[in-house]
Write a structure and sequence with these properties.
Elements lengths: L1 H24 L7 H21 L4 H16 L6 H29 L12 H23 L10 H27 L5 H4 L1 H73 L3 H13 L11 H16 L3 E7 L8 H20 L8 E9 L2 E9 L18 H17 L3 E6 L2 E9 L2
Parallel strand pairs: 1-2
Antiparallel strand pairs: 2-3, 3-5, 4-5
Helix pairs in contact: 1-2, 1-4, 1-5, 2-3, 3-4, 4-5, 4-6, 4-8, 6-8, 8-9, 8-10, 8-11, 8-12, 10-11, 11-12
Length: 429
């Protein structure tokens, strides 16, 4: 019973360290904190029971511990690649700290066979050193991170994922050699785990710095997009003001002309003038009274029409919304750019169209865009597949949309069957 309690507390400490690492890099937990804490305690007890039952089977204990780590990672919101990466990295940290801790104790103790002297003073001291080393590693790693969003290419992800996995395998192989070869000085035995730990920490710091730079690039391009849409919006407003001034001037002249015609009883000419007034419309492309959305739609629909893409537009929103013009431009602009691009890849037999439905309900802005899927993409459709010359810009556009949506506590839903449909909801706007 003492062994079970001791192992449970040690495992709970490990899972607390794991939680600190995961919270830093994998974002928020999917379940309530209270349930999460209970689950950690239950897993710590179960793992302790497995450790005690398979006391002499190190491989079985390692496999079970890795399974528990992966289960805990599934409770976080980030993607599976990051979950695998940081689960593997934590395993490396754990193995390195264990080897380092035992070797440190062996420097000051004659009890080399620690397994046979289980729960001896030397063993308990080694456990304390192991947990201290693990805590220091986690502290160093988490203190040097500023970015929690993974933005690097997939190949880079794969390389990063293989490093902690290979390191763990190497460390497990070295563990037997280190403890079996008694004649070598302990300081020499410590070189391997320390070197592997050093390599993994450096690789992680490089990953973090590269990710930070990628994030800065994305933010810069988002600012460029925001400025572009703001300039277009304010430029459109200025153009409309000029058109209204021209309309007012022309109406004054028409009114004077009609007045003179009526005074001279030329009723037929008056009818012609009235017809000209009724046909005079400076705001032909008015989809909504909201100037931001109308400006964006006007620009993108003109582009679609130039490419022979039909559009069906339904917009029912207030004149004013609590949304930054640049943010609105990034969301609607990028999604319509993707819809137009998808239409351009259609075969001659497929009909080109875009359906746009924008509505406002209970302080929520709902954006629904529907367009056909090219035949070449129907079997294995990927939202992030692009035929643009710069796939990097396409990817940054999508990430920009996701980032803006999260800014308004909204969500993004993607469906693709016969047609491609993207739905966006922004809350509290």
């Amino acid at each position: 019973m003492y062994a079970l309690i001791f192992e449970a507390f040690m495992n709970l400490f490990d899972y607390i360290m794991l939680t600190i690492l995961f919270k830093c890099f994998l974002g928020e937990i999917r379940i309530a904190p209270f349930l999460y804490n209970i689950l950690l305690f239950v897993l710590a007890v179960i793992t302790a029971a497995v450790n005690v039952f398979f006391e002499n089977d190190a491989l079985m204990n390692f496999i079970f511990s890795m399974s528990v780590i992966l289960v805990i990672s599934l409770l976080y919101k980030q993607g599976i690649k990051l979950k695998l990466l940081f689960s593997g990295l934590f395993a490396v940290f754990g193995v390195c700290s264990e080897m380092f801790g035992f070797l440190m104790i062996m420097l000051i103790s004659s009890e080399y066979n620690l397994i046979e002297n289980l729960y001896s003073d030397s063993y308990m001291m080694s456990i304390a050193v192991i947990k201290l080393v693990l805590a220091l590693i986690i502290l160093i790693v988490t203190r040097h991170t500023r970015n929690r969003h993974q933005l690097l290419p997939q190949f880079f992800n794969f390389v990063l994922f293989t490093i902690p996995i290979i390191s763990t395998v190497v460390l497990l192989i070295l563990a037997d050699a280190v403890f079996l070869i008694q004649e070598k000085p302990l300081l020499i035995k410590m070189i391997a785990p320390v070197a592997i730990l050093y390599i993994n920490v450096i690789v992680f710091l490089i990953f973090n710095k590269s990710n930070e730079m990628a994030s800065l690039i994305m933010e810069q391009r988002m600012m460029e997009q925001e400025i572009k849409y703001k300039d277009k919006y304010y430029g459109t407003l200025e153009k409309k003001q000029d058109e209204l001034r021209e309309l007012k001037h022309n109406l004054n002249n028409l009114v004077l002309g009609i007045k003179n015609i009526l005074l001279n009883s030329h009723t037929e000419e008056a009818r012609v003038f009235l017809k000209e007034i009724s046909e005079f419309d400076s705001l032909k492309n008015t989809y909504t009274q909201n100037p931001i959305v109308n400006s964006i739609l006007d620009d993108k629909i003109q582009l679609a029409e130039a490419k022979q893409i039909k559009s069906n537009i339904q917009v029912q929103i207030p004149q004013q919304l609590n949304v930054n013009p640049g943010d609105m431009g990034i969301i609607i602009g990028n999604l319509l750019d993707n819809a137009i691009e998808a239409n351009e890849r259609l075969t001659a037999e497929q009909q080109r169209f875009i359906t746009i439905d924008i509505s406002y309900e209970r302080k929520c802005l709902l954006i629904d865009i529907n367009n056909p899927i090219p035949d070449s993409h129907k079997k294995a459709f990927n939202y992030k597949v692009s035929s643009k010359e710069s796939k990097e810009e396409h990817g940054i556009g999508l990430k920009s949309v996701e980032k803006i949506i999260s800014k308004y506590d909204g969500n993004l839903k993607i469906e693709h069957a016969d047609h491609f449909r993207v739905s966006v909801m922004l809350t509290k706007v």
